[in-house]
């Protein structure tokens, strides 16, 4: 009797009643100083007491029809969420010290009044919005996603004068501010405490329909843009608190930033959701698992290739180019962005192929897995010095359970790892198809800002 080679889904990972499990070392978590000045409270106790759905052993309910991590993840990427999480964004072009740019999309709740937004129907004055969008749009730049436009200078000045606590959101590898899960969080955050927070999504270079202006792409190791953006906002308002949350690959970048800077960061607290802490193990998950490879790896690779294609005006070098210096992480050399290599990349179906051709050689690595090993944030988790909440799911078809940093998290009292058995990759869609996890993240920041000094 022959053994079937058909792909299967482990039935032990089926279900819609999820459970939260805390991973904490024997010495517990860091003590937080509360605003009443009379007591302290450990990070784990603080989270359990103030965000009960994240308490150790607590349960949550997901959509019964999406009873595996694969179904959760596929639905999040394929379903129509256009009528949910109707956030208005004002876009700012952020300039960096190396001459490059990215974009920052600021949540503009005031625009709901300006454009007569109806919260029940989702209707607003599109004619006026489109007119303003046309007047502010940069020539030869891509059209933006719905309810997003570039800001006028006076609007940027107004945003920069806002001194409310700031939350910076970092998106995943193939995403941006327009993603449903990002909009879910920014919508939740902007409603907290009657507008307690100022909220912004920092789009990485070339993402979310922005352009690359220098021969430089983002990697998990290049966290300088995050550092410059946070420092600039702290300099404007030295007394404000700043928080950050990273989704998937954005969580990798955030964790690498936190681990690199240690105590020298303006952040008061941070959260990561579904981050691949060990990029080697997560890549093996994506390449070896039948479902993950066919449903997710290929689409991510196509996004990366397309990003190179639309930015070849800045990235392209002549065929046959050689490095003019030894490439390193600190001093990359983008000599592989040739027209012939782009034609090769169009046929790729894995991120390993993409990173072997582009990322690894430009950073001085001989192979993609050498880059993944060095870029894995698990290497720097021990040096995270600010209170950090980590949320990962065991049934994540992109990250995989092996890449969850249980041992390293339990050794660092500054982090609290909340491991769930269900949720998929960034999904956690409840019976109303709203992400359960983004509600908990918003509640965590609200309580932290309200109660912690």
UniProtKB/TrEMBL annotation:
Q: What is this protein called?
A: alcohol O-acetyltransferase
GO biological process terms on file: medium-chain fatty acid biosynthetic process; medium-chain fatty acid catabolic process
Stretches assigned to the AB hydrolase-1 domain: 165-430
The superkingdom listed in its UniProt entry is Eukaryota
Q: What does this protein do?
A: Displays enzymatic activity both for medium-chain fatty acid (MCFA) ethyl ester synthesis and hydrolysis (esterase activity). MCFA are toxic for yeast and this enzyme could thus be involved in their detoxification by esterification.
Q: Which family does it belong to?
A: Belongs to the AB hydrolase superfamily. AB hydrolase 4 family.
- UniProt catalytic activity: an aliphatic alcohol + acetyl-CoA = an acetyl ester + CoA
Return the Gene3D superfamilies for the record.
alpha/beta hydrolase (3.40.50.1820)
Record key words, sorted: Acyltransferase, Hydrolase, Serine esterase, Transferase
Listed EC numbers: 2.3.1.84
Q: Which GO terms describe its molecular function?
A: acetylesterase activity; alcohol O-acetyltransferase activity; monoacylglycerol lipase activity
Q: Which residues form the active site?
A: 248, 396, 425
Spell out the InterPro entries in the cross-references.
AB_hydrolase_1, AB_hydrolase_4_CS, AB_hydrolase_4_sf, AB_hydrolase_fold, ABHD4
């Amino acid at each position: 009797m022959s053994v079937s080679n058909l792909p299967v889904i482990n039935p032990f990972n089926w279900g819609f009643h999820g459970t939260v499990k805390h991973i904490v070392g024997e010495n517990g978590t860091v003590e937080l100083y509360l605003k009443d000045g009379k007591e302290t409270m450990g990070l784990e106790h603080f989270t359990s007491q103030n965000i009960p759905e994240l308490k150790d052993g607590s349960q949550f309910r997901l959509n019964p029809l999406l009873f595996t991590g694969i179904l959760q993840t596929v639905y999040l990427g394929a379903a129509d969420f256009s009528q949910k999480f109707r956030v208005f964004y004002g876009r700012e072009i952020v300039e960096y010290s190396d001459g490059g740019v990215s974009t920052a999309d600021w949540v503009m709740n005031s625009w709901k009044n300006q454009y007569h937004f109806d919260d029940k129907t989702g209707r607003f004055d599109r004619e006026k919005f489109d007119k303003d969008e046309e007047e502010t749009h940069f020539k030869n730049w891509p059209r933006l996603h719905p309810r997003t436009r570039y800001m006028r200078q006076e609007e940027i000045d107004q945003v920069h004068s806002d001194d409310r606590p700031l939350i910076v959101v970092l998106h995943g590898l193939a995403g941006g501010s327009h993603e449903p899960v990002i909009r879910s969080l920014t919508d939740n955050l902007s409603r907290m405490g009657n507008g307690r927070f100022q909220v912004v999504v920092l789009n990485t270079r070339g993402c979310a329909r922005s352009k690359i202006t220098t021969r430089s792409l983002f990697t998990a190791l290049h966290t300088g843009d995050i550092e410059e953006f946070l420092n600039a906002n702290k300099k404007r308002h030295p007394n404000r608190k700043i928080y950050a949350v990273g989704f998937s690959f954005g969580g990798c970048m955030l964790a690498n930033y936190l681990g690199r800077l240690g105590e020298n960061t303006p952040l008061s607290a941070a959260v990561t959701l579904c981050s691949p802490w060990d990029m080697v193990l997560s890549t093996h998950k994506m390449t070896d698992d039948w479902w993950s490879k066919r449903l997710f790896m290929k689409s991510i690779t196509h996004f990366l290739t397309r990003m190179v294609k639309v930015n070849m005006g800045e990235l392209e070098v002549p065929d046959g180019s050689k490095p003019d210096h030894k490439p390193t992480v600190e001093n990359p050399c983008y000599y592989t962005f040739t027209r012939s290599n782009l034609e090769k990349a169009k046929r790729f179906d894995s991120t390993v192929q993409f990173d072997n051709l582009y990322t690894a050689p430009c950073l001085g690595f001989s192979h993609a897995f050498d880059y993944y090993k060095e870029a894995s944030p698990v290497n720097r988790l021990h040096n995270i010095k600010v209170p950090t909440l980590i949320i990962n799911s065991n049934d994540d078809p992109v990250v995989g359970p092996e890449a969850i940093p249980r041992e390293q998290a339990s050794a660092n009292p500054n982090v609290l790892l909340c491991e769930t058995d269900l949720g998929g990759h960034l999904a956690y869609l409840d019976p109303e198809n709203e992400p359960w996890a983004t509600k908990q993240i918003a509640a965590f920041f609200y309580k932290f800002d309200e109660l912690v000094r």
